[in-house]
Design a protein that fits this description.
By secondary structure, the chain is α+β, with helices and mostly antiparallel strands. The protein is built from two helices and four strands, in the order αββαββ. A four-stranded antiparallel β-sheet has the order 2-1-3-4.
Length: 117
């Protein structure tokens, strides 16, 4: 088996990756919806964050409103993802799923990518 090096470097902003899903092609709206459905199905609380591509490796991302505690309406979550992306078209937008049982992030994925700097 051969292991592939993705050549992600801090010196090359276009090569930077943001977790497992960032190595895959951008998600379609249907794929994003399936991730939202999965988070809701497991009873996790969705949240949305965004940041400029230049700061994507930082620990601090801007929170889009408050986490959507108890939200089970997939359409409402999808609408908030779209609203965040529309308000910040050049930013990365990520979807989080907070797991109440483990008190941690159970899901964290970039669903909209901003243009590389």
């Amino acid at each position: 088996m051969t292991v592939q090096d993705y050549n992600s470097r801090l010196s090359d902003p276009a090569s930077r990756k943001m977790g497992t899903f960032s190595y895959l092609p951008e998600m379609t709206p249907d794929q994003i919806r399936k991730q939202v459905e999965w988070i809701v199905k497991h009873g996790w609380n969705p949240a949305i964050e965004h940041t400029e591509p230049a700061y994507a490796t930082s620990n601090y991302w801007y929170m889009w409103q408050l986490p959507m505690f108890g939200e089970t309406d997939v359409e409402a979550i999808m609408a908030e993802l779209a609203a965040c992306h529309a308000a910040n078209p050049g930013n990365h937008v990520r979807l989080l799923g907070y797991n109440n049982f483990t008190q941690s992030q159970g899901a964290n994925m970039v669903v909209y990518r901003g243009a590389p700097v």
